[in-house]
Design brief:
Blueprint: E1 4-6, H1 9-13, E2 22-24, E3 27-29, H2 36-50, H3 53-56, E4 59-62, E5 66-69, E6 72-74, E7 78-81, E8 96-100, H4 107-120, E9 124-129, E10 134-139, E11 142-145, E12 150-153, E13 158-161, H5 162-167
Parallel strand pairs: 8-9
Antiparallel strand pairs: 1-3, 2-3, 2-6, 4-7, 5-6, 7-8, 9-10, 10-11, 12-13
């Protein structure tokens, strides 16, 4: 369940939370993490993508703060940059943000998160439900359910078959 606390922006930026929290217009929101399925899939995605950083010209981060607006910060489960960033807090839109659903995630909160990413300029958002293996690919003005078992992006061309994640 997500809980919210009022915190000044300066305090958020100078504090390390474990796990890190989203910051939305003065509210500190805890993220749903810590379950086996979520953690395992996050690790597998990070390993799969980071092993291909040079091949695909990408840079992969886990639970990294992303400033999507002046007073809004999101912390995606995994994010992919086109090249290595030069900033400690990401203020340049990532190429891809990956969110892994937890049983207590709410649809409206997840949609707000996806909208924040896309409005910020993120080209792709993957939303993955680890226990059902259902996934959705969001891009500006478009959403599709993954029907062939392969998560994809274009330019750079990234593809991750679920079957390869299961084999790791």
């Amino acid at each position: 369940m997500t809980t919210a606390t009022d915190v000044p922006l300066s305090e958020y930026l100078s504090t390390s939370y474990r796990p890190d929290c989203d910051y939305l217009d003065g509210e500190l929101l805890e993220r749903n993490v810590g379950e086996l399925d979520h953690s395992r899939l996050q690790g597998l995605l990070f390993r799969y993508l980071s092993n291909r950083e040079k091949q695909w010209g990408i840079f992969v981060l886990v639970e990294q703060r992303v400033q999507v607006k002046a007073s809004r910060f999101r912390v995606p489960d995994v994010l992919v940059m086109s090249g290595r960033p030069n900033e400690q807090i990401i203020r340049t839109p990532p190429f891809l943000c990956i969110e892994i659903l937890s049983p207590s995630d709410r649809v409206t909160e997840m949609q707000d998160r996806i909208d924040d990413y896309l409005n910020f300029g993120v080209r792709y958002v993957w939303l993955i439900h680890p226990s059902t293996k259902r996934a959705f690919i969001y891009s500006p003005g478009h959403v599709e359910e993954v029907s062939d078992g392969v998560l994809r992006t274009y330019r750079p061309d990234i593809s991750i078959p679920f079957s390869e994640l299961e084999a790791l």
